[in-house]
Write a structure and sequence with these properties.
81 residues, mainly alpha
């Protein structure tokens, strides 16, 4: 992991202290989770933008429920002795 130093304004620092106090060591995890979420949202926005620029055509859609359903279990016959 790398360390990142971030300066916060007083209001943001106070709000962060309320939700993730430094004394209980939750702050770092809170910030990591917030960054992961923000990055994910940016990636989702980029994907949505790409689909708006070049939407799927109706012929591109392939839906076959058999692909998504689990295969039926094979039944075995009992061997009689």
């Amino acid at each position: 992991m790398i360390k990142v130093l971030v300066e916060l304004d007083d209001d943001t620092a106070a709000r962060l202290e309320r939700v993730a106090p430094s004394r209980v060591r939750r702050r770092s995890e809170f910030i990591r989770a917030a960054l992961r979420r923000a990055l994910w949202e940016l990636e989702e926005q980029a994907t949505a933008q790409a689909y708006r620029r070049q939407p799927d055509a109706g012929r591109d859609v392939y839906v076959d429920s058999a692909v998504w359903e689990p295969a039926p279990r094979a039944t075995r016959r009992k061997v009689q002795r």
